[in-house]
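Table S7 (text form). Paired inputs.
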Amino acid sequence: QVQLVESGGGLVQAGGSLRLSCAASGRTSSTYVIGWFRRAPGQEREFVAGIHWSGGTTVYADPVKGRFTISRDNAKNTVYLQMNSLKPEDTAVYYCAARSSGVVILTTRYDYWGQGTQVTVSS
């Protein structure tokens, strides 16, 4: 089992920045990928960004490319999502997820999920 705890959400004005953190514990040695997803009110959950835990390969969804950066600190078992130039349409609950069943990043087949953290961007 892998446990994930997100933090860093909040309220920010358009154009501002936030950094989300995802702290992993448990069987992190079996984790290949950490991803960030988000769900806006009334919408389906969507992939935001992902990173290979060991090699550091990253993948981003088109709406966040150039604005968001995912990174990891293996010593702290933590993955970060730096979000810059935030827009009102980035408002959502952000979830981090871990994948132990494969190495593909851009997929919905993640095995473990955090509880989510709310990000609200005001116009």
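Next pair, protein 2 of 2.
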Amino acid sequence: VQLQASGGGLVQAGGSLRLSCAASGRTFTNYVMAWFRQAAGKEREFVAAIRGSVWSTYYADFVKGRFTISRDNAKNAVYLQMNSLKPEDTAVYYCAADRYWRGSSYYGTEYDYWGQGTLVTVSS
């Protein structure tokens, strides 16, 4: 089972990027798919998640209105559209998958699978 994140890069403040996470090895249709990020010298933090069965979405306060998470179950993939990027969004972004949505889903401790990360750098 593998999650492959891609789409990171260097962008100027105010720009946009779209991250993709392709899953392989099993079907993630009913899984919660999430994005986390970790900036240099900081702890990993929750960014956004989308549930499998009802497609409810959840966002960290600092990305609400700027980022949108979506999924394409036919492609076994999840996406993160990032608009109005800020220098403080600079981080390695990881996708993750979990079978259930729970209170601890915001903390990343229960996820079954993790991607390798993709670096997003936002210049000022």
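Residues 73 and 85 are 27 Å apart (CA to CA).
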